[in-house]
Amino acid sequence: MAYVATRGGERAIDQSERLYRAELGRIDAARVAEIRHALPMLIDRVMGEASLYEPDLAALALAQAGGDLYEAVLLLRAWRTTQPRLTIAEPVLQEQLFTLRRISAAFKDIPGGQILGPSLDYAHRLLATGVLQGRPYVPAPVEPAATPAPARQPSLAAWQKAQGLVADPARADVAPDDIPDLTREPLLFPAARAHTLQSLARADTGGMLALGYSAMRGYGNAHPTVNELRLAEADVRVRHPRGTVFSAGRVKVSQAEVTSKGKSGLLELGFCATLGWNEVKVISGATLDLNAPGAAKGSPVEEEFFLYHTEPVEASGFCIHFKLPHYVTFQSSLDALRGAKAAPAPHELEKVPA
Predict the structure, then answer these.
(1) Domain coordinates in residue numbering, the chain
(2) Measured at the alpha carbon of residue 56, what is the angle toward residues 55 and 58, in degrees to the nearest 5?
């Protein structure tokens, strides 16, 4: 692909950026804090797609990008690459999660019970227009339950395996240094299971929703039922050089398992998890994971198709690069078009005397 080098436009480029920054206005710590507290779901989405859990930096990226989600993700990913890797955390098991929401659409009475937690799923979508007339919206206080739900809940899939409903593949332990890392290694196909789950964890939410929705509407080979959806906080447990394992803090995580009856007569599971709370993303991702085996080449649910086309930074970057000067390639197309128009048509060649 050919480009024309930009010359003599340094001042114009500088002023263009200044104009953009002027539209955003001053950015200070108070503005960043307000974004963090006012837009927690958006903060979670940025952190998940950037593969970095840091709410303050995610809020700063959104402020600096003026709310442009793809620009904010790019800023946070770029900053992430400058940081050293200190250690690898211990594995996080479902039954160890501090669970705030856990529901199943497949089973009513699940071990541990259904926990609705924070959700708008059952609310009327009414715009609080009174806020614009000076009447603040003050949410009603939460009434504590007489008996709080247990903070830690068992794995529903483990219960299903014990019932003989789901295949129980052998678990292979992997040394921390042998865990593949998509942020440091290229995505190759057929993709390793770890790479697939890592790609889904940081994929674009909108892209995953579009392709997951296509699978739900019949372009996939399995219709999903939500087996378990969980919003939780996970302890980041790391090992000190002296050998002691301790918690360095908690991060918000989402996970979803969807299920469908497989050809073997057992239930098949699709899985997706991500940093932050993002139910649409993990349900869509789990649906794609469920449909990937046996998908037709080039279909929306083929692994190579959805992993490539839901990568937010590469996809947005490729789209935006079309704004750059393409004068050389476009002129070559015009030259070919003009040449074709100037050449005589085949029926006119027959009229030329020998």
Answers:
(1) 10-80, 94-116+151-168+180-315
(2) 65
Residue 354's CB: how many other CB atoms inside 10 A?
A: 2
Average pLDDT, the chain: 86
* CB 264, CB 294: distance < 8 Å: no
271 near 255, Cβ under 8 Å?
yes
Q: What is the SS3 assignment for 50?
A: helix
Q: Closest by alpha carbon to 75, among 90, 92, 87, 57? A: 57
Question: Model pTM?
Answer: 0.86
Pairing of strands 267-275, 245-261: antiparallel
- Give 198 or 220, the one with higher predicted confidence: 198
Q: What percent of the chain has pLDDT over 70?
A: 93
Q: Mean pLDDT, to the nearest integer, of 237-242?
A: 88
Residue appearing with tokens 């930009």: 6
- At position 94, the amino acid (one-letter code) is Q
pLDDT of residue 235: 93
Neighbours of 197 (CB within 10 A): 17
Q: Phi and psi dihedrals of 66, rounded to 5? A: 65, 25
Q: Is the sign of the CA dihedral 82, 85, 175, 254 positive or negative?
A: negative
- Asked whether the beta carbons of 203 and 310 are under 8 A apart, the reply is yes
Q: What angle do CA 338, 340, 346 make, to 5 degrees?
A: 150
